[in-house]
Amino acid sequence: MDQQKIRRVKETFTLADNKELHAALSATKQLSLISINAALYAVAIAVTSPIPTPWGVGHFRPGVVIPAFFTVVFGPIIGGVGAAIGCFLGDFALSFFGLTTPLLSLIAGVPGNFVGFYVLGLLISKRRSLASFVMSSFVALIVGNLVAALGVLAYFWFVVPSWASWPMSMKIAVVSGLTLFWVVTMVIFVVPLVPIIVSYVEPSLKRMGIGEVSNLSWSNSISLIKSTVSIALILAAIYSLVALSPGGKMIFAGVLPPEILLIGSVVVFASGFIFTYLMKKVERFSSLR
């Protein structure tokens, strides 16, 4: 049996063990993990909330690494529910400073966070490799942030009368701009940081009895490179379309230039090669033992 077949067999057993782990967590433990996830995420939201965003809606949220971590380790329910609650708690606190409203959070932020991280949990549960995590994160962030952006549109459509009269092209531009802004400013933190955090806390997870099935498989560097290069090319292609479009520089309402998409492309691209280098180092070290 070659190395690839052995790897697939290991991944099959890991997935089975992972499903048993998530099912075995007691209701008390699940509530505790959801609470920790929500509390940490709410604090992270508040810390970066003053940073401006397109149209003054939503926030710059590098703190998404927190629910992403909980999703990878403990599954879609703990990750998704914790993210939704944390989003509302953070937004509720910020509403006292006029930075958002609880109703907007319930319509846009809460469903967007739940859907996004629940999707991430479902996708990563099928294959717990680093390459799968990278691509799953990108897809989940697109889905979740699109839901949130549509929620923002719905909120202003019904709450702010002047929005209802906007042409459809303008509404599409708002949804596209918000979605792209959130995706690119989140993926540059989720892709490079979450795998490292999961790997770093793995010894502690093992002491809890869940480390063997909650980590990501740092193997198959070719698949990892393919995933990161694909995402980098997608972001670069979106930038090209935006740059060539009339008024493309206003896709982020003038708050940030479209070149932020290129920055996201470079970060994801570099992450793939850095992780590949680390894989080779680990493999070389293991062969010497």
What does this structure look like?
The protein has 289 residues and is an all-alpha fold. The protein has a single domain (3-288), classed as Orthogonal Bundle (Arp2/3 complex 21 kDa subunit ARPC3). 80% of the residues lie in helices and 0% in strands. It is globular, with a radius of gyration of 20 Å.
The major sheet is characterized as: none
Topology as H/E string? HHHHHHHHHHH
Mean pLDDT figure: 85
CATH level 1 class label: Mainly Alpha
**CATH domain fold name:** Arp2/3 complex 21 kDa subunit ARPC3
Count, helices? 11
Provide the CATH architecture. Orthogonal Bundle
Multimer state = single chain
Distance between the termini: 23 Å
Keywords:
single chain, mainly alpha, Arp2/3 complex 21 kDa subunit ARPC3, globular
Per-chain topology:
Elements: H1 3-24, H2 27-48, H3 65-74, H4 76-95, H5 102-126, H6 130-159, H7 161-164, H8 168-207, H9 211-214, H10 221-244, H11 260-288
Helix pairs in contact: 2-3, 2-4, 3-4, 3-5, 3-8, 4-5, 5-6, 6-8, 6-10, 8-11, 10-11
